[in-house]
Amino acid sequence: MRSAKVQAAVAEVHLERQALSREEIGALDHVFDFGAHTSPHPILPTCTDAEARLEIEGSRAEVELLTIRIRLLICSIDKAEQIGLDWWKYDHHLSPGKQALSAENDDLRKQVRALERQLASVTRRRSAPASR
Predict the structure, then answer these.
(1) In principle, which of 6, 47, 90, 129 could form an S-S bond with 51, CB 3.0–4.6 Å?
(2) Where do runs of H (alpha helix) occur along 13-127?
(3) Does pTM top 0.70 for this prediction?
(4) Are residues 103 and 91 in the same domain?
C-alpha cells in the first residue's frame, strides 16, 4: 500500500505529463545520475509501494546480472569456457541465426564425408590389380 505521504503528494499535484521528456533528461543529466531504471517504465508514483519496490528490485537484479556477465566476458573468456560459463554462445540476442549456421555446417560436413567416401572408392578401384 502507498504511504499516506506519497498519496497526499500524488493527490495534491496534477501533472499533465508524469515523466521527464528527453530534453529534460538531457538538461539534468549533468546534475543527476539516473542509473538503472525499470524495464516496462511504469510511472512509479502511481504504483503501490510494493509494485514500485518489485519494479526497482527486479530491474536492479537484471542490471547486476548483466554486469556480472560483462565482467566474466572481459576477465577471461577462456577461463569462463573452461568452467562452463559460456552463456554467450547460447544467448539468442548475441548470436542470432546461429541455428541456421549450425544446420548449414552440419549439411556441409555430410557433403564432405560423402565426397571423402567417393574419393576413397575411386582410389581403391585405381589401386586394385586389374583382373585378367
Answers:
(1) 47
(2) 22-28, 49-75, 77-82, 98-127
(3) no
(4) no
